[in-house]
Design goal:
11 helices, single chain, 53% helix, binds erythose-4-phosphate, TIM Barrel
Length: 217
């Protein structure tokens, strides 16, 4: 499973890229707004930190303007994945950009039918938002299971990118279902490393080691 982080914060991106476990980054207009910086310059900096796909979202809602925005974003770096919303115009744009060889991430997916359409439109990634479905009393992970099954049935190349992740349990369930990617907030990626028994065990090993008075180096 690939791990992307869902942020436009460069400090978090640098910090987590240094672990060697970061496969990409997703941003959205809300995350960019939080930085208070220029969108194009932030995205360009992210593409220099991370080799994997960096999602940058179009903000136009009509196909013609969205296509121009997508082409401009794609020109920033070869690892840009242009993000378009799951609308008729968004999927038209997805088809046009993917035909040009541009990676497209179709975002704001909330149903299996939408995911099927995105795959037919040539999306490199489909982003179902599990947390926002859970928030309204629906089952976000049931949607992931349905999409994984549909994509497997037809051997679609579109990768299932689990988005709107709220905690480690979402990541584990997504991995059990065989989702290709989870995009997680930086704090959730950090939480994946932790277990209290790891901390406790390490403290005990080091206390015993200190008693030996030895050093390895
Ligand atoms: C995905 O690409 C989105 O940026 C994201 O996961 C949205 O998550 P939220 O529901 O926490 O805003």
């Amino acid at each position: 499973m690939k791990f992307f982080i869902d942020t436009a914060n460069l400090d978090d991106i640098r910090d987590l890229a240094a672990t060697g476990l970061l496969d990409g980054v997703t941003t959205n207009p809300s995350l960019v707004a939080k930085t208070g910086r220029g969108f194009l310059e932030v995205v360009e900096e992210i593409t220099r930190i991370v080799d994997g796909p960096v999602s940058a979202e179009c903000v136009a809602t009509d196909h013609e303007t969205m296509l121009k925005e997508g082409e401009k974003l794609a020109a920033i770096a070869p690892n840009i994945a242009v993000k378009v919303p799951l609308t008729v115009d968004g999927l038209r744009t997805c088809k046009a950009l993917s035909t040009q060889g541009v990676m497209v991430n179709v975002t704001l997916c909330f149903s299996p039918a939408q995911a099927l359409l995105a795959a037919k439109a040539g999306a490199a990634f489909i982003s179902p938002f599990v947390g926002r479905l859970d928030d309204i009393g629906q089952d976000g992970m049931a949607l992931i299971a349905e999409i994984c099954q549909i994509y497997a049935n037809y051997d679609f190349d579109t990768e299932v990118l689990v988005a709107s992740v709220r905690g480690p349990q979402h990541v584990i369930t997504a991995a059990k279902l065989g989702a290709d990617v989870a995009t997680v907030p930086p704090n959730v990626l950090r939480q994946l490393f932790n277990h209290p028994l790891t901390d406790k065990g390490l403290a005990a090993f080091l206390a015993d080691w200190d008693k030996t008075g030895q050093s390895i180096l």
